[in-house]
C-alpha cells in the first residue's frame, strides 16, 4: 500500500527536488561550457606566441628563409610537466620541409585570410591543440606554412580545477537546500504525525474527540468530520450496550422462573401436581421463546440491520387480510370479534413482507391482549393521498395520553394491565415503520374509547 500511495511528505519532496535537480543540471552544463571557453584562451595565446616567435626566427615569409633553426621545445611527458610540443614547416603543396612531426595539412584560406587558425587534433593517440600560420612571402617566392601543436594535459588540468570550483559549491548548495526542504516538511507535517500517533496509541474503545487545536488549518475540517463520526459511533455503541444489558435483564426473569419451576416439578411425586408444574414450565418456556423472537425481530429491523435492499413490491391490502386471518383463533379464544376492512383495489407498496407481518402481528396481539373479553378489534387498509394507510383499532381500555409516546420505547410497559409481556412489541412496530419511511400515530378510538394505531406509508411512486 505504501508503494502505491505516496505520502504527502514524499510528494512535496518530489515536487521540490525535481526542479531543483534540473536547475542544478542546467547550471552545471552551462558552467562547463563557460569553463571550456575561458580556460583555453590563455593557452591558445601562448601557443600562438611560440609559433610566431619560431616563424620570426626562421624569417618565414621574408624570401630569405632559414629553415636550419632548431627550436628548443619542452619534451613533456611526465605528469605536472609542460605539454609535449610538435611543429612542422611545409610548403604550399603541404610537403614537410622541416619539423619534429609531420603536421602538414591543407589550410582553408577563409576568404583569403591568413590569420592564425586553431584546431583540435590528435597526435600519437593523444589529444592535441594546433595552431596553423601561413606566410605567403613576396611575389615570385614560395609560400610557407607553420603548424605547431601541443598536448592538452595542462589545459585539461586547469579546466578540471575551474570546473570543480564551480560544481562543488553548487553541489553543497543543493545538499543544503534538500536538507532544509526535508527538515521544513518534517516540521510542517509534525502535527499530522502527532495526530496519527494519537489515534494509533488510543485504547480500542476510546471514542473521545481528536484534538483539532493542534492541527494545521487545512486538516481541521477533516478532523471535525472524524470527530462527528466518532460522536455518532459513540451514540450507537451506547445504544447497543444499553440494548444488550436490557435484553439480558429481560431474559433473566423467564430463565430464573424456569429453573425454580423445574426444581419444583422434580420434587413433586403426585402425578397431578407434577402435571401442573410441567404446564407452568411450558408457559414460561413459551414466554422466553416469544421474548427471544421479539428481540431478534427488533435487531433485524434496527438501523444497521438489513436496509431497503430486501424491499419488494407487495399489496398491503392482501398482506393485512392474510395476517388478520391468522389471529382469528386467538380472538375467538377470548370471545372477541376480529374484523378486517380492506379496499377493493390493491394497495401497492414497496416493503419487506416479513417485517410488515411482524409489525401487524404485534399490533393485533396488543389489541387482543389488552382488550377485555368480548371486545372488538378491527384492522383496516385505506388509500389516502397516494399512500397506503393501515389502522388497528380496538374498544379496550386505551392508553392514557402520558404513556402514548413512551410505549414505543424498548421494554416500556404500562403497569396494571395484568398481562405478561416484555415491552418490545411497539418498539418493533416503530422500527419497521421507520425502515419503511412510514409515520405512526397513536390515538384513542371512536367515542374516545379504546386504542387507534394509524400507520401512514409514504406516497407510492409507481
Ligand atoms: N391496544 C392496546 N390497548 C391498551 N394498551 C396497549 C395497547 N397496545 C399497547 N398497550 C400498552 O403499551 C405497552 C407496550 O406494548 P408492547 O410494546 O407491545 O409491549 P408488551 O405488549 O410486551 O407489553 C403495553 O404494556 C400496554 O400497556
Ligand atoms: Mg405487545
Automatic annotation (TrEMBL):
A UniProt-annotated Pfam family: HisKA
Classification via PROSITE patterns: HAMP (PS50885), HIS_KIN (PS50109)
SMART domains: HATPase_c, HisKA
Enzyme Commission (EC) number: 2.7.13.3
Domain called HAMP: residue spans: 186-238
Subcellular location: Membrane
Gene Ontology terms for molecular function: phosphorelay sensor kinase activity
InterPro entries: 2CSK_N, HAMP_dom, HATPase_C_sf, HATPase_dom, His_kinase_dom, HisK_dim/P_dom, HisK_dim/P_sf, Sig_transdc_His_kin-like_C
Superkingdom: Bacteria
One cellular-component annotation, GO: plasma membrane
Histidine kinase domain: residues covered: 246-461
Keywords from the UniProt entry: Kinase, Membrane, Phosphoprotein, Transferase, Transmembrane, Transmembrane helix, Two-component regulatory system
Enzyme class, broadest EC rank: transferase
Residues that span the membrane, as ranges: 20-40, 162-185
Keyword Kinase appears in the UniProt entry: yes
Catalytic reactions on record: ATP + protein L-histidine = ADP + protein N-phospho-L-histidine
Protein name per its UniProtKB record: histidine kinase
Natural source organism: Sulfurimicrobium lacus
Lineage of source species: Bacteria, Pseudomonadati, Pseudomonadota, Betaproteobacteria, Nitrosomonadales
